[in-house]
Amino acid sequence: MRAILIMAMTLMALQAQEPTLTGGGGPPALRVHGAATVSAQPDQAQFDIGVVTQAPNVSAAVSQNAAQTNAVMNELKSLVSGSDIKTINFSVNPNYQYPKDGKPAIITGYTANNTVRLTLNDLSKIPTVIDAATKSGANSLNRLTYLLKDERSVRAKALAEAAAQAQAGAEALAASLKVKLGRLLRAEEGQPVVVSPAREMILAKAQSTDMTPVSPGTIDVHADVNLTYEIVGEQSVTRTDTKGQR
């Protein structure tokens, strides 16, 4: 019985020392990374125009806001398409006064806020639209953001340049290692990220077309690509399999 136990332990030790595959179970491969950033001039702008009114009671605040907003909307629709104007917020909130003696807050009136988001496909109209909006009753302006009408083409260009960089890197690396590239085994796309910082404008500085121009700058689209190539040729790294050689 003891002899059988010793033989079993010896066999287990030999099996534990058996060499494993050093090639990972697949063909030898080379993995490279490519990245590219494409800059484009924006051709579209978005910004929010609001009408804020205050009155002693809710009905007066709403009525005053509606009249002022209608005047602004009529002026905007004379300059841009109605489909490019979208209401994004309407709210009525009480205004509170807080006594110094710690007594409960007192409602002193109400504030109505109506905000629309405007999309402009002609950037040269920005000063004209802002001037018309403020003169017709708008008193809140913010979130001026520049965009691209066709973002997909810029994304595609960034991906193509990233892939070309990865391919060139693979060829250079293969040449330096004196190996040959075979099939493209895998192509992995990273999510392109559009970087477009928002531009904020202060209404007090935008009362006329003589306001200081806001430079749109550029919109950057970044893309990442990983490519994996098979390595072929006599000088390529080979997989070692030593099973059954004892």
In a nutshell, what does this entry contain?
The chain has 246 residues and is of the alpha+beta class.
Structure in words:
This protein has 246 residues and is α+β, with helices and mostly antiparallel strands. It has two domains: 22-42 and 149-246, Protein of unknown function (DUF541), domain 1 (Translation Initiation Factor IF3, 2-Layer Sandwich), CATH 3.30.110; 44-147, Alpha-Beta Plaits, CATH 3.30.70.2970. The chain contains four helices and eight strands. Strands 1, 6, 7 and 8 form a four-stranded antiparallel sheet that branches. A hairpin with an 8-residue loop joins strand 3 (85-97) and strand 4. The longest helix has 27 residues, at 151-177. The chain is elongated and about 85 Å long.
Question: What is the helix content?
Answer: 25-40%
As for the CATH topology of the largest domain, it is Translation Initiation Factor IF3
| Distance from first to last alpha carbon | 28 Å
Number of domains: 2
Major sheet characteristics = 4 strands, antiparallel
Oligomer: single chain
- Shape annotation: elongated
Approximate strand percentage: 35-45%
What's the helix-strand series?
A: HEEHEEHEHEEE
CATH architecture of the largest domain: 2-Layer Sandwich
CATH class of the largest domain: Alpha Beta
Task: Count all strands and give the number.
Answer: 8
Class based on secondary structure composition and strand pairing: alpha+beta
Number of helices: 4
Average pLDDT metric: 80
Poorly predicted regions are 1-23, 203-209, 236-246
CATH superfamily of the largest domain: Protein of unknown function (DUF541), domain 1
**What radius of gyration results from the CA coordinates?**
34 Å
